[in-house]
Amino acid sequence: MSNNAQLGNRKFIIAGFFCLIIFIYLCRLFYMQLIDKSYELDSKNNAFRYLTEFPMRGLIYDRNGKLLVFNEPSYDLVVIPRETKGCDTTSLCEVLQISKQEYLKRMKKACQAPNSPRKQSIFEKQMSAKTYAALQEKQYRFKGFFIQKRTVRKYPKPIAAHLLGYVGEINKNQVEKQSYYKDGDYIGITGMEKSYEDELRGKKGTQIAITDVHNKIIGKYMNGIYDTLAIQGKPLYCSIDRDLQDYGEKLMQGKKGAIVAIEPSTGEILCLVSGPSYDPNLLVGGKERSKNFTALYYDSINLPLFNRALTAMYPPGSIFKLIDALIAQNDGLINRNTVFPCQLGYPPMGGKPKCHPHGGGTNLIRSISVSCNSYYSYVFREIVDQKKYPHFIDGYNHWRDMVTTFGPGTRLGTDLPFDKPGNVPSTKYYDKVFGKNSWKSNTVVSLGIGQSELLLVPLQMANVVSIIANRGFYYTPHSVKGVGNEKKIDKKYKVKHFVGVQNQEAYTNVIDGMQGAMEPGGTASANKLKDIIVCGKTGTAQNPHGKSHAVFLAFAPRENPKIAMACIVENAGFGGVWSAPIVTLMMEKYLKGKTDRLEVEKRTLEADLINGKNLLSTEFH
What we know:
Elements: H1 3-35, H2 38-47, E1 48-53, E2 60-61, E3 67-79, H3 89-96, H4 100-111, E4 121-127, H5 129-137, E5 145-154, H6 161-164, E6 167-169, H7 172-177, E7 186-188, H8 191-195, H9 197-200, E8 205-211, E9 217-220, E10 236-238, H10 242-251, E11 257-263, E12 268-275, H11 287-297, H12 308-311, H13 321-330, H14 364-369, H15 373-384, H16 392-404, H17 427-434, H18 458-470, E13 473-475, E14 480-483, E15 496-498, H19 504-517, E16 535-543, E17 546-556, E18 563-569, H20 579-592, H21 598-606
Parallel strand pairs: 2-10
Antiparallel strand pairs: 1-8, 2-3, 3-4, 3-5, 6-7, 8-9, 10-14, 11-12, 11-18, 13-15, 16-17, 17-18
Helix pairs in contact: 10-20, 13-15
């Protein structure tokens, strides 16, 4: 072959080789640009920033349209670890007031699962306005870091902390269960914030921003045509009266216990007070929130985070006599004129349970107004020892079944979380304690006066007096009048629940006795109101751990009741001394807009029973 031919062949081989290289590159470019999107995403991630637009949570108003909860701007510092090369970490630590070790710890967490060096995660949450301003000035020095706007809750009045609840960072288990949330998101933890989370949270939006080499946002991608707007959460129209709630919390300062008020005709909760309480603004923010929560959580004396209105189970004491009186009348065992003896106690058992001096035997009406223990020891045994039941156990189960229709021993189904059912002891429980067939009515006779293992939560106590005010029915207690601008409400809160006693004469007799409790000679006579007929019942709930609890429940006015209330003050003795003034003062405020009993108000407001100031030692029933 000639040299010219060989040279020509070499040219074709070299040309073919270069064509092959070009073809391979073209194929690779085709694959990278049209098939494999990871390179496109990396490119976009270098130029684009995907910003989550967090929605504002729904506002919460009281029953009269007064604002209870609103939103305030807050800022998180977010990091993408793989983009932090060249970041001035020393300056960043100075602005955030953290150590280099803390910086490295947070960066390590940002790189670990479920986070990733490629993904953004929160580095510093809910920064103060001062810190935000300092970061904005030096943003160009903090490569890989950017600021994300969100909102936090704010409370114009520092009230209703237990009712409203608080918002906190979501935990890992919640993230795994609900696709809406991501690590670092916030969710309702307690109260209405938890119960109505789906309505309050709104819907997230997304913005695609273009950044320059200095980590600054210089505009929106495609003028924002791919952005989605955040949708604010729905407003809640709460059933509580802000002024009544505020007044109740002031009256409970220096006291442990709870107050619950219900509108009987609707089941709407008018106030829910747990004392001691706390300012809900304390659980807002980043570092301060964490510090405040720790202090509240470890306050073992006052337990301010403990919602006594829903989760504290107390012996009801003498207020429980009202249920026994209704059941016994319904069974035809007693009537208005039935009299049982009293000799400073229950005679058949040698004066136990004990009773205070009130002039001996009484009829039904007076037994309520003077709160006779002996009378209701007889009544309890009349109910459970009825001859129509072949066995005592059958009579006891009848009593227990009737009691539970009034709410004790069951969860009421309220829209507030973590409510407890209370306790009405079962026959199985007593069989374990005393042995099967080894206990009788006299063994557990103190159940008739609301003692022994009988326990109610304050919400149940308020619901019982609401039932009496309605003469035999109740609506499930709830904290919201309506959701959204349409003010929708779950249909279950419109359903009447009828209890086991529907004998209207029985209710009339009990209410006569409750009105008598407020008259001269009654256990709450000092708390009679001038222009309002209040029907009430005092109680002194014996406490195995210390001084008895003061209990009082009431409704007003007698005809067409507008408010039903229960109050318990721990370790305060007689219900007529402390609980009754609190309830009647609040009823005056709610029904009249003011109180004329300024001395009673002053004494109650100033009383510090936690530290033993102004505590009267007198105890009745």
